[in-house]
Amino acid sequence: MKSIRTNRIPCFRRWCRKGWAAFASLHRCVMIGVLPFTMSILLLTTQGASAQASDTAAVLRTLRIDEVGVSGTQTSPSQNALSHTPLFDRKAQTAEPVQTLEAALRLAPQVDLRERGSKGTQADISIRGGSFDQTMILLNGIDFTDARTGHQSHSLPVDLDCISGVELLDGVPGVGAYAGAVNIRTAPLRPRYLRFEGAGGQHGYAYANLSGAVTTERLSVLAAASYRRSDGYMHNTDFTTYNAFVRASYETVRAGYFDFQAGYQDRAFGSNGFYAAYNPDQWERTSTALASLRWQGGAGRFSFGASASYRKNFDRYDWTRGEAMNRHVTDNAGVRAWADCDWTGGVTTLGGDYAFNHIFSTNLGEPLPHPHGRYTHATSRHTGNLWLRHVKRWGRLSVTASGGLSLTSYGSSVLWNLAGEYTPVDGLHLEAGVSQSMRLPTFTDLYYTSPAQINNLDLGPERAITGRLGAAYAKNRWNVSLLTYYRAGRDVIDWVLREDMEGKWHSEQSSRLNTYGLELTGGYSSGAGFLRRLTLSYAYVTTSRNEEVIARSAMDFMRHKAALAVEFRFLRRMSLALTGSVSDRNGSYTHYPVSGDSSVSEVRDYAPYLLLDGRLAWEKGICRLYVDATNITDTSYCDLGGIRLPGAWVVAGVTLTIGR
Question: What is the pTM (predicted TM-score) of this model?
Fold first, then answer.
């Protein structure tokens, strides 16, 4: 890439954020030559800027052009989302007191993160009033959503230091993204580096991470491995987590661009009250292996792409620790292919994908005539999608329309999306869109039966139509954005209490669920001075459904959520970052005063709570020292079913980074 610039010019220090420029410096015209792929600057989310011309579910490559950090994006039309909303940005939020992906997403106004344990042990990701099963999970644009249950979808072997950003995608074609999709992007911290992080703290907490990257003109390799453990903050909440991940990309002159990723995660954790609040002795272990390969090439005005992916998940659940109750092994495989044509009428994309899901289990699926090892049940399904998309731009106006056909075991369904974006003046961005979405029942929805629950094999797809309006404005160091949406859902799946079935919960889809939401964010960002960054966000959600049934989770959502993040720099090398959030959840749960006794219980409403976290850090050269304090006010709170989450927790760590 050195051929891009042959003459010395000033190093870029400040971006002017003009919508018509890929590169913008202070009042200078810069010639960079012709590039073989689309380029975009990764701007801070707090500045309200984004790469408008590129699909953010794309493969990201980090290049180096002398002092200027540049990101190249190769588009992935298989995930032609109509709208992209940033949830996390590594550059903007690196100083925050977050150690896991779950902690990083907790402050995002669009996300309802419901943890059952600590430090990412087990959590559900819900977005904009939806459930965790209604969220599609992507890793670098590849769909790794678990077909058995959304509990396992974000069990990804990636640590926070490898994650360059997380974004919410609306209007993703095909089956799965009922409420939207969360795309997690990985990228090296630097072109070439070796990094070690070690941390320890209360409750026997320990964390070690080793990562690094090598980047040449055509090859980029990122690799990382980590270990995390704790004795637990109360009885039977201990955990151990191992992660290993590698991502490699290579660009050839004639064969095109190749992007490969693979990873493995192993987790074991005490599950005090996780799935039955009165039982303190539950335990679970999960193992996840995944891999994908993506290719992209082009010829003239045409570009082509294809990808293949595979994910395998093992799960063992003990009702009483040490005594296995349920075991599952789930296989998810998928392939995609697409083609773009850039012509005078716009850009037209034609594509398709296929997914295969299979499970062996001790209790999910159809009974096997002969056991398969430990497993006595199994089932599988096939899903296919075809789509056509067209994008047309007229100056500051862009319109996108797409339509597709989804083929499943429930028949065929037509899905469509329509969106428009307009930039009337520099800094002001307006958007509007409407999309149709659906998701299939999980294997748990269809087959799970327990002493308190009855399954339902007659479930079908959930369907929704979502409309949204948004506006964002950025000027100098300030930014503000507002988005409102309305989702009309039908055939929504939930567990319904049926007195005519001996008072058991029955899996049904008798609900029509309409959801309205509003999101407001604003912030200030400065590259110098005492106050470096300030962000404020607020989200409001309300829903309505049929009142004649008692549903377990349809009316259990985050009604109000406000968050504040602030970062200070002082004494040259010191920084202090504080984050706070106020959460008010709609709904109620069953509280069991006596642990292990289900005969005595009471129904309680979720209570609002305040969380305050902080990080004090010192940095010089390759070394960075930090102290994190989470839940400083020692608030007693729960996200789900009365499961108590940790109080005040202090962790100290060191990071050593060698490279450039």
Answer: 0.87
